[in-house]
Amino acid sequence: MREGNRASAAADLIAAIARGDRGAFERFYDAHAALAFGLIRRILRDPEAAKEVLQEVFWQVWQDAPSYDPARGSPEAWLVMRAKTRAIDKLRSIRRREQTFVAPVDERVAAAVATRADDPGLAAEDRGLAQGALEQLPGPQRRAIELAFLEGLTQSEIAAKLGEPLGTVKTRIRLGLERLRTAFKVDNT
Amino acid sequence: MSRDELDELAAGYALGALDVEDRARFEALLRADEAARRALRRFEETLVRVAAERPEPPPPEVKAALLARIAASPRAGNGARVVPLHARPRRSVWTVVLAGAMAAGVAAIAVGMAVSSRYEQRLEALGQEARTLKAELDRQASVLAILRDPATQMVALSGQTPSPGAHARMLWHEKAGGLLVAAGLPAPPPGKAYQLWAIAGKSAPVSAGVFTVDPKGTGSLRVPPLPGVSHVDVFAVTLEPEGGVPAPTGAMYLAGKSA
Question: What is the CATH number of domain A104-189?
Answer without folding.
Answer: 1.10.10.10
